[in-house]
Design a protein that fits this description.
The protein is built from 7 helices and no strands. Helix content is about 45%, strand content about 0%. It comes from Sinorhizobium kummerowiae.
């Protein structure tokens, strides 16, 4: 690329007229969700993958997404997903619900809280 084109692109990016993907900031919780949860869970569409979609997860009852095959333990847990229950679950899913298939643990409390805040804002 020549220097004029590069200068024009830099100017657009600095002025805020860049494409939305370049100008939008990503919240820390969103980035962590994408890195740590996105391989198994969908958030932008109500489509299940390896894990159930998490659209509207805060306030929902555990094991209640139609079309996802939950473990009997999670389905029968009657947990309502709140910031507090998600905090406990994400720190050690198997300790909270013995028999769950959720294996991912989030040992860093700040990362857990950022992900939960991001999920709550969706």
């Amino acid at each position: 690329m020549n220097k004029v084109v590069i200068a024009a692109l830099v100017s657009l990016a600095v002025s805020g007229h860049a494409t939305p993907a370049l100008s939008q900031e990503v919240a820390p919780g969103q980035k962590l969700f994408q890195q740590r949860c996105g391989a198994c869970h969908q958030l932008e569409t109500p489509r299940n993958g390896v894990g159930p979609h998490l659209v509207g997860v805060v306030g929902r009852t555990a094991g209640s997404v139609d079309g996802f095959r939950y473990s009997a333990a999670l389905k029968g847990s009657a947990i309502a997903w709140t910031a507090e229950t998600l905090e406990t679950f994400l720190s050690n899913p198997a300790a909270m619900v013995r028999g769950t298939r959720m294996a991912q643990r989030f040992n860093n409390a700040d990362e857990r809280r950022a992900i939960i805040a991001f999920l709550g804002a969706q």
